[in-house]
Design brief:
Length: 379
């Protein structure tokens, strides 16, 4: 319990506790920073945070999972390269202050059970937990979507990772038993019930996402270049969201092979999200699963962000009874796959994937059967 950890470290009970979940993305990968559609769900693994006010302007922050502490002053919040884990908390606090919110000094502890660097958004969960924490401790009042945008800006500007808005949004505004259908252009969203006797099963490849940030930046740039190239052919668009596959065919030569494939992934993935939402709402889980496989192939071949480990996990999943669909989830280059599995087949699935992964690659996969959970700021 986070309250007990707080008491052990600081010698008294905390005043408040907050919690923010990790997320898994069911479909809609690398679309958020292209103004596109995504369909994530918060999972039942979370960052928990507890704290009490101090009389001064100091924040003392303790990371349970790293057994590490750091202190900083609220009057000039700086990045800390040596305790880089603290930058998510610092970044959100800094932006709240810059936007006129009043914070107090505080003793804080946090920790959780979201595997780090596994593509399940433990960083976004720390950011959103920080929002939920300050909301309680300092009595802040803000609209949840405002909070989400602020958390994303903290990650972009303070931490320096040019991510889209999906992870913070899912951690903040998901609903239990539902997926979150989000339009990243105007941030309108709808909760879509996950009906039927199926489980969301996550397979962790165990491979940390080493290349992720540099390759992520390259993909982001390539999408911008594709938009510029389309403009040069006379198609004035702001983002790949506004483009369809016919537009891409017309501009194929101007784009060149690489940008064409990158753009085709984004454009086709947006289409798949729309179809997946329709399938989910219509109870057609078979179709939903097929779209997951197609998403994986597009990420593997056109966007080139998969890996041997992720491909192996998807291939293994395809052959198991009771599996509707499988794909890599998150930024790629390691991390996890997400699988939609009939509930009664889930245990055998987990066993078979662990054994197959060991046999094929000599590696250990961790399998999590997830519940779709509430976000930290869900009303
Ligand atoms: C990471 C980013 C998200 C999103 C995904 C890819 O999780 O943080 O914003 O771009 O990658 O879909």
């Amino acid at each position: 319990m986070i309250e007990e950890s707080f008491e052990r470290i600081y010698g008294s009970k905390p005043e408040v506790a907050a919690r923010a979940p990790g997320r898994v993305n069911l479909i809609g990968e690398h679309t958020d920073y292209n103004d596109g559609f995504v369909l994530p769900a918060a999972i039942d693994r979370a960052i928990r945070m507890a704290g009490r006010r101090r009389a001064d302007r100091t924040v003392r922050l303790h990371a349970l999972d790293l057994s590490d502490s750091v202190e900083f002053g609220l009057d000039s919040v700086q990045r800390d390269e040596r305790h880089s884990w603290s930058n998510y908390f610092r970044g959100v606090s800094n932006l709240l202050l810059a936007n006129g919110f009043k914070l107090t000094g505080a003793d804080v502890v946090f920790g959780g059970d979201i595997p780090r660097e596994a593509g399940l958004s433990s960083s976004a969960a720390v950011e959103v937990a920080t929002l939920a924490f300050w909301r309680k401790l300092a009595g802040l009042d803000f609209d949840p979507v405002y909070g989400v945008k602020l958390a994303r800006r903290a990650e972009n500007e303070f931490v320096g990772m040019p991510c889209g808005v999906m992870d913070q949004f899912a951690s903040a505004l998901s609903r239990e038993g539902h997926a979150l259908f989000l339009d990243c252009r105007d941030l309108s969203f709808r909760h879509v019930p996950l009906k039927g006797d199926v489980k969301i099963v996550v397979s962790n490849s165990g491979v940390k996402r080493a290349l992720t940030q540099s390759e992520y930046e390259i993909r982001l740039k390539q999408c911008r270049q594709a938009v510029a190239q389309l403009g040069a052919t006379g198609l004035a668009v702001k983002s790949l969201r506004e483009v369809d596959l016919d537009d891409l065919e017309v501009a194929r030569e101007a784009l060149g092979g690489l940008l064409f494939r990158r753009a085709r992934h984004v454009v086709s993935e947006n289409q798949r999200v729309l179809e997946a939402v329709e399938a989910l709402e219509g109870g057609d889980l078979e179709r939903f699963g097929q779209l997951m496989y197609a998403s994986h192939e597009s990420l593997r071949d056109d966007y080139e962000v998969s890996s041997r480990e992720l491909d192996t996990l998807v291939e293994l999943a395809r052959r198991q009874p009771g599996v509707l669909g499988a794909r890599m989830t998150g930024a790629g280059f390691g991390g996890c796959t997400v699988n939609l599995v009939h509930a009664e087949a889930a245990e055998d699935f987990a066993r078979a994937i662990r054994a197959g992964y060991k046999e094929r690659l000599g590696l250990d996969a961790e399998i999590y059967v997830c519940q779709a959970s509430n976000g930290a700021l869900t009303a």
